[in-house]
Amino acid sequence: MKSGFLEKLVARLDRVVPGDVQQIVTRLIRERGFLEKVFEALHEGVIITDPQGVIGFLNRAACQFFGLDAERATGARISSQIRGLDWANLARPGRTISRDLEVFYPENRYLNFYLAPIDDAEEPGEPLGYVMLVRDLTTTRAEASLVFTPDLSGGAVDQFLSDPDGSICGSSTSGMPSWSRSADSISAIRR
Fold this sequence. Notes:
Elements: H1 4-12, H2 18-41, E1 45-49, E2 55-58, H3 60-66, H4 70-73, H5 78-81, H6 87-90, E3 97-103, E4 109-118, E5 129-136, H7 138-148, H8 154-162, H9 178-190
């Protein structure tokens, strides 16, 4: 976090009554604690970095996804903590990106991350830092592969291969699929 906010606060402290200073500090601590609790409650990983990619905060989910220790990772460059992450190509002011990533440690996981700059309203251009939100797509991908996997069990393959006319609906004596004959029979019944 840039010290601009703190510098402005310190510059105005002489105009603030001492009791109000205590209230302001208490409120800042409470709000920071509240936000940390919210981030920890999320199932998505949250990593907050400065503009150079130095980790300022990461939640429990991010630690689990990448096998990191929060105390050791805080203060380290994100590219040294997440193997294969090319920070120089990813982090660009004013550019938000979303990428898929497969990690193999501590578990094989398919992740999607969203990296967005934290813009400074007072100083456009250089961001205050970046926020990375990380979602685990491992179970979603596994479920999708189960849903879209064709049934190629022995019986289904044998039936498909033994059908000489390529009819999906069964064998046909006239070379026409059986559903066509069924439609002709239905129209004959209506007459």
